[in-house]
Amino acid sequence: MSKANNRKKIEFIAYTAVFTALIFVFTMLVNVKWPFGNGGLIHLGNVPLFVCAILLGKKSGAIAGAIGMGLFDLLSGWTMWAPFTFVIVGLMGFAVGSITHKRRTLYWYAISFVVALVIKVVGYYIAEWIIYGNALAPLQSVPGNIIQIGMASVVVLIAIKPLEAAAKMVGFKYA
């Protein structure tokens, strides 16, 4: 194995680990419990998730999102949600990374966030239906999911171009 391949693997692991931690911390420290329905959180964990998927690609987005938010669920009393979060947020990171790969414009970023929103709404609707055994109750969580993804989308759309420029200045290479 060449030194270049080793370096790429190490960078992949290191960057993905940093974003996993950021996703966990942003979810843990900046959140508000949704006051309607079965609860849920409005948090900023999707900000580093989206940035990770855009800068590092679908694989890092999926891994960092699944582990970062899944760990949050496990460590903060939302344990029964962890398997659902692992799959749903992993799919969100994968989708954003896939859509924005080689499409580095705000238009494609926005499209990828809409796809992530659909994954989140449908995924957590199914999860709540399974957990609570009721097909109507999950509808109460939809507004919170929309607010959560909407807030993250606005923040990322504002911050992503400066972040990309900073990454380029330090020699960062996109996935």
Q: What would the keywords be for this entry?
A:
globular, 6 helices, 175 residues, mainly alpha
Describe this structure in words.
This protein is mainly alpha-helical and 175 residues long. Helices cover 74% and strands 3% of the residues. It has helices spanning 3-29, 46-56, 58-75, 82-100, 106-132, 142-169, and strands spanning 31-33, 41-43. The chain has a two-stranded antiparallel sheet. Strand 1 (31-33) and strand 2 (41-43) form a beta hairpin. The longest helix has 28 residues, at 142-169. It is globular and about 55 Å long. 38% of the residues are buried.
The number of distinct helices, counting runs of at least 4 residues, comes to 6
Q: How many DSSP E strands? A: 2
The fraction of residues in strands falls at under 5%
Oligomer classification: single chain
Question: Uncertain runs with pLDDT below 50, 5 residues or more?
Answer: none
- Bin the helical content: over 70%
Average pLDDT figure? 93
Structural class, from secondary structure content?
Answer: mainly alpha
Largest sheet strand order = 1-2
Rounded radius of gyration (Å) = 16 Å
H/E series: HEEHHHHH
The largest sheet is: 2 strands, antiparallel
Query: Span from first to last CA?
Result: 20 Å
Short characterization:
With 175 residues, the protein is mainly α.
List the helices and strands and how they pair.
Elements (H helix, E strand, L loop, with lengths): L2 H27 L1 E3 L7 E3 L2 H11 L1 H18 L6 H19 L5 H27 L9 H28 L6
Antiparallel strand pairs: 1-2
